[in-house]
Amino acid sequence: MKKAIYIFSSGELKRKDNTIYFENEEGQKFIPVENTSEIYIFGEVDVNKRFLEFLAQAEIIMHFFNHYGYYVGTFYPREHLNSGYMILKQVEHYLDFEKRFNIASEFVSGASKNMRQVLKYYINRGKDLGAVEENIKALEERVGNCKDIDELMAIEGNIREHYYKAFDLILGKADFAFEQRTKRPPKNYLNTLISFGNSLLYTIVLSEIYKTHLDPRIGFLHTTNFRRFTLNLDIAEIFKPIIVDRVIFTVVGKNMITKDDFEKGMEGLILKEKAQKVFVEEMENKLKTTFNHRHLGRNVSYRRLIRLELYKLEKHLIGEEEYKAFVMYW
Amino acid sequence: MVAITGTLVQSYNICKRQTWLMAHQIVPDQDHPYIEIGRLLDEETYSRDKKKISFENVVIDIIRSDEGDIVVGEVKKSSKAQESARLQLAFYLYKLKQNGIDAKGLLLFPEERRRMPVELDSDLEQELEHIFKGINLVVSMSVPPPPQKIGYCKNCGYREFCWA
Question: ipTM exceeding 0.85?
Fold first, then answer.
């Protein structure tokens, strides 16, 4: 199985012979190209055109994060799986309001159902979250009646507001109080973790999209402006509660990340490198974890689950099976 | 009318859904181990031969000459889907014949150290023409034929696409 490579240190990435070569003062390392699916760069890494050409040829996608752990961008090599047919179908479903709305609302209600599953898990463990769950359910029922995508986005925002407030009860840690959702820059510890985790998930979904026939620039819930990737943001909505939030509960709950792991930077709070590593490692563990997939009748990893979701969307677009978002059942 | 290719002919005999998907450029999961094995087998075997000759929409694995005859080789991992491979190779011979080239065919199974000659006769030509019609019918459907669980699904790169 091909692996994702994460680079936190600084140095130079090169093509050497027919493989990937990383070099810095501490030493040198060969990374087998055949076993690499994607590369995440957190450190100050130099690359050259020859290296990028090599990645394109090997169909490896590369994501960059800046010094503060914020997403910078992706080297997305030219499409290698071209299906004009699929792209036309994707565009058709974007341009037709009803078709677009059907898909977008499935993303919102799927995300909402997964958030409620998270809450239910903690309700079963005696946390007093029944009222939050009811509130979210009421909002979720309004999804189908929205007039337009903006209204849908607003409901989605409201659902998340209720949901994130429940984190205080779930985590029970004063240091990680939610207060309110703040982005760019996130203003407190919890928001910093949410932002970091969500950005990671966006790139993971993008990597999976690269391996399908879908065009990442055409989202349905998030408006396409053709300057940035949006389909990954859509799909990520469904998986945030399943993947990111549960990683947050683990790293905070087990004190793997504490308030000492943050520092104040020019642009708000920053997760220190050590903590970034902890988070990324926990996220990787989660993605590798397998479970029995009811429909497929065998074990699949969480990363694979994302790919399956894309396949379901493709089948919806070609008109063979109505898309239903994955809802976790545990 | 679709442009018939060797893989369409090959898949038609195994799974019509696969034919439809391939014709719509929805290729199977490239990470699938069998597809990787196929790629490696293709790169690493018969390196002394001329490889990958393409014309129109035909890509031929290997071309050799054998005492004046032209021999066209098709490399396969296993002989499990031998009948489909035979039809695929026959299709190449058919296309060559249309271009005025008479050739012989050889199916190659390097891992099994086995080979099988294929010759184009009028029966086989008729069978192919019948298949071309069938492919055109399948591909012109607005949605792919629904998935059906067959033995081939187990090792198929479309498995997750079909059953997700």
Answer: no
